[in-house]
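Our consortium's second objective concerns turning raw sequence data into structural hypotheses that experimental partners can test. To show how far this objective has progressed, the report includes one record in full. It was chosen at random from the queue rather than selected for favorable results. The single chain below, 312 residues long, was entered without modification.
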Amino acid sequence: MNTTILLIFIFFAILPFAFGDLRVGFYSSSCPSAELIVHRIVERSFNQDRSITGALLRMHFHDCFVRGCDASILIDSQKGNQSEKVAGANRTVRGYNLIDEIKRILENVCPLMVSCADIIALATRDSVVLAGGPSYNVPTGRRDGLVSTMDDVRLPGPESSVANVLQVFKSKGMTMEEMVTLFGAHTVGFTHCSFIKNRINNQSFSMDNDLRKRLVEFCGVEGKDPAVFLDQNTSFVFDNQFYNQILLGRGMLSIDQNLALDSISKGVVTSFARNGESFQERFADAMIKLGKIDVLVGSQGEIRKNCRVFNF
């Protein structure tokens, strides 16, 4: 092989790395057991605690909506830097230990090969399927970010208006329908009484009266802050019952209930409440799109050895 041909060969050999993109089966050659390892560990965790589905969905969303899907939410704070993890909106995010476990095993099998960002995306998909939700192909090839700071976290709160939340979603390239679709993840989520205290004690907030009475009693225990399911009907099953619940005035969070009241979103809520199959199809599409927000690929970022700290 002459020098010119050799140089051309080398150039195209490194091209996918330098100018990479997400694709299904990214690790099929470099770490063929990666997705199976993720699935097995998530399945074991799900069998022990079915609430892990809601936890991973929340982690994935909170990661992607700050700096993009780069696993910046996993970084621990260090001296001189308060990471995303300690921001108010992230203090109740769970599932870090599960990601650590997956990463530890993958590092033994395929060192510095599988990104923490891809682990989050794959683990979230697997947990959704285990809860009865749709299966969808996760394009992989994300790289891990090199920045994580508390000041970057500006996520909509539980009492935000539909219009304000939609503005945030649009800034990330998501549509109104996709916003309402992704809120369907609340079908397997929960909150704490402290987050809905004003809502259940203030009669001006729309809520089913029987539910309000039960919540006032349940949340009224002094010194305790128990968890409350966002879907009071099928709390651990990934289905469309969240939409039926909020149409009946049984939304736990103000933003959830407002989805069923606001003319901007009510039509989509009603449609999904009537057609669970349509919701699941749209949810799969929306999750794939969510997982592509501002990703790092190719030679950008890094592949962390430990998801909680940068390599350098």
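The partners drew two points from this record. The CA atoms of residues 24 and 262 lie 37 Å apart. Residues 3-18 form the longest helix (16 residues). Both points have been shared with the crystallography group to help prioritize constructs.
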